[in-house]
């Protein structure tokens, strides 16, 4: 199996585990993220508007919006990094690429903290998404300009053995699940 096929195999298996976990642990995962980020102030934080069975960051985004700017990703095109639009609880939304909702006419922001959706992650804090390479390109670009904290958000069952890696895969700084945070506190 070549690398793309191995990634596709991992993606399919983790996607099925995510679906089961989402039905059981959705509220616990959302609460864990909210509590972990309580106390963060003055940052530009990228969340996301969840699709399918992604862990739901909306409770955390709502709480953080009192003391931070919050934004969500917009697909500009194939092979392009994501951009991010200003988001507030209850703001008007429209459908963007891949059926993901995006804010109507929100200002473009550059986040320094990102809550990153994923399909699979490993103990080395590498991730697999839907296969567009969007977050890889985005983190590469943001990290070239300054410090960025990329927080994967997932269910514990989305963890897998070491993922097949490519030079373009960007590592996460942390992963939050319903069970806690990786890497474990020293
Ligand atoms: N909630 C959320 N928003 C997000 C992302 C995300 O992963 N989750 N993105 C992160 O990049 C961007 C959207 N990217 C996406 C890329 C692919 C597919 C998708 O459904 N892919 C199909 C294959 C589609 C095709 O080949 O045409 C699939 O997985 O079946 C969805 C979103 C921006 N917003
Ligand atoms: N910075 C980059 N420059 C060029 N190609 C890239 C870059 N990042 C990723 N790619 C390519 O994009 C394709 C998809 O990458 P990958 O399978 O890692 O996506 P993913 O992590 O699942 O998706 P996403 O980041 O959108 O959630 C691969 O062919 C990869 O080589």
TrEMBL record:
Superkingdom per UniProt: Bacteria
Entry's Gene Ontology BP terms: folic acid-containing compound biosynthetic process; tetrahydrofolate interconversion
One GO MF term attached to the UniProt entry: metal ion binding
Reaction(s) catalysed by this chain's protein: (6S)-5-formyl-5,6,7,8-tetrahydrofolate + ATP = (6R)-5,10-methenyltetrahydrofolate + ADP + phosphate
Segments crossing the lipid bilayer: none
EC number: 6.3.3.2
Entries under Gene3D superfamilies matching the protein: NagB/RpiA/CoA transferase-like
Keyword set, alphabetical order: ATP-binding, Ligase, Magnesium, Metal-binding, Nucleotide-binding
Annotated InterPro entries: FTHF_cligase, FTHF_cligase-like_sf, NagB/RpiA_transferase-like
The UniProt record lists the keyword ATP-binding: yes
First-tier enzyme category under EC: ligase
Binding site for substrate: 49, 54
Residues involved in ATP binding: 127-135
Cofactor: Mg(2+)
Family in the record: Belongs to the 5-formyltetrahydrofolate cyclo-ligase family.
Name recorded for this polypeptide: 5-formyltetrahydrofolate cyclo-ligase
Organism: Aliiruegeria haliotis
């Amino acid at each position: 199996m070549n690398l793309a096929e191995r990634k596709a195999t991992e993606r399919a298996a983790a996607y099925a585990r995510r679906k089961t976990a989402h039905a059981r642990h959705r509220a616990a995962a959302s609460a864990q993220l909210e509590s972990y980020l309580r106390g963060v102030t003055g940052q530009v934080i990228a969340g996301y508007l969840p699709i399918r069975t992604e862990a739901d960051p909306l409770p955390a985004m709502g709480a953080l919006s009192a003391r931070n700017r919050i934004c969500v990703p917009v697909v500009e095109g194939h092979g392009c990094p994501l951009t991010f639009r200003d988001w507030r609880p209850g703001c008007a939304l429209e459908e963007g690429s891949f059926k993901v909702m995006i804010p109507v006419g929100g200002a473009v922001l550059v986040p320094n903290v990102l809550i990153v959706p994923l399909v699979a992650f490993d103990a080395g804090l590498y991730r697999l998404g839907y296969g567009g390479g969007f977050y890889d390109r985005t983190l590469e670009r943001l990290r070239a300009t300054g410090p960025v904290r990329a927080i994967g958000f997932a269910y514990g069952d989305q963890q897998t053995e070491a993922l097949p890696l490519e030079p373009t895969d960007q590592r996460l700084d942390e992963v939050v699940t319903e069970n806690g945070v990786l890497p474990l506190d020293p």
